Amino acid sequence: MIVFDFRGKVVLVTGSSRGIGAGILSAFAQAGATCVLHFWDDPDGTNRRDAEQLATQLRQLPQQPTIHVFSADVRDAAQVAALMQQIQQTCGGLDILVNNAGILRDRTLKKMTLEEWHAVIQTNLDGVFYCCKFAHDILRDSGRIVNISSIAGLIGVHGQTNYAAAKAGVIGLTRVLAKELARRQITVNAIAPGVIQTAMLGEIKPDVLAEYLKQIPIGRLGQPADIANAVLFLASEESGYITGQVLPVTGGWV
Ligand code: NDP
Question: For residue 30, what are the domain limits?
Fold first, then answer.
């Protein structure tokens, strides 16, 4: 059940064609927000098809939300700037930015290639910086930024030097931006998900996954809806006095 009301609000969720991002965007759509469904336009068009399919489903909700489908590679500053201009022209501004797009390229330090290091930093950290920087001019006063970090940014997880560095970087960026944007009543918070059941998990070996499960007191993996519920709270008017915080959503792991 969705308890928050986002009618009249414009929300952008990066990487929302699937996984956690799709769960977050769907929750905002059910709460009546005008949604920007963002995807990365891969060469074979799979992501565009997935994005259009989700948009079609969401438009059929009883709330009949407006869903715009826009693409940008978050690693490319010019594309992110163009995305924000597109949102300004189409929606007249932005109320809520959720930085969700991210990738995983796990490998021990010894085996990690420079390409793997840079790919994760560019997507998971540079991408968040670009989205915040170019959203800044179109974000309305009393707006909200929610960054999807990870418990990897709080505790060390084997094989994740690139991912942990990027996600810890997002936490640092969140704390600074919270201070810079507070005078406009814009709050900036981060969520640190634990292990959430999405396609990203496919890249984790089953024995590693079994080890993760042992450490989750709640006794199950998280679902995208678990993250979406936390995002909606931090994006709501009711959370206006909470800023610069990191909320672990981990089933009790952290
Ligand atoms: P998915 O792989 O299912 O989804 C990732 C999303 O990021 C996709 O929509 C993808 O777009 C988008 N994306 C990737 N690269 C780019 C890019 N260069 N430009 C634009 N979009 C891009 O992962 P999850 O849903 O599991 O993860 C979502 C977020 O949650 C990530 O930031 C992840 O690090 C974080 N997280 C996930 C956890 C988990 O256990 N699943 C745990 C902790 C944090 P497209 O589909 O168009 O390719």
Answer: 10-249
